[in-house]
Design brief:
Layout: H1 45-51, E1 60-65, E2 68-73, H2 84-100, H3 111-121
Antiparallel strand pairs: 1-2
């Protein structure tokens, strides 16, 4: 009776820090999806797998870089560190940059305005890492 040779099962590949899509090197594939009339899109499954995104759990962020955007997994935000007024203001700035950044509308701060800000804040003791005690009036 002939002897039977068995092949060992392949060892599962170690998960790399940046997962790849089968047959493609990381960063070397373009995936597409349509944008609906409501401005929505579905993330392709390959993108969800590559970023390790879980439905209803993870968030993504869009980074506008000139005439293109990068989609990446958003870092978790500690709700205790969010300032609703500041976050709203930063969102406004981000939207404005996204809409007008590549058009040349953005300019550096004029030197006179920079000097005015410097004069207004001269001598102010700023400690951004220190907690604020008591009520704050704006």
């Amino acid at each position: 009776m002939p002897t039977r040779t068995t092949r060992p099962h392949p060892t599962p590949a170690k998960r790399t820090k940046v997962p790849t899509i089968a047959g493609h090197a990381a960063g070397r594939i373009a995936l597409r999806s349509k944008v609906t009339s409501q401005g929505q899109t579905t993330l392709p499954s390959g993108l969800r797998r590559a970023l390790g995104l879980r439905a209803g759990v993870d968030e993504i962020e869009y980074v506008i870089q000139g005439d293109h955007a990068v989609i990446r997994r958003a870092a978790p935000v500690d709700a205790r560190e969010e300032d609703p007024a500041l976050c709203g203001f930063l969102d406004l700035i981000e939207r404005d940059i996204a809409m007008h950044g590549a058009t040349g509308r953005l300019r550096t701060i004029p030197r006179s305005l920079f000097r005015r800000i410097a004069r207004a804040t001269a001598g102010v003791d700023i400690r951004p890492d220190e907690s604020i005690d008591g009520e704050v009036a704006l």
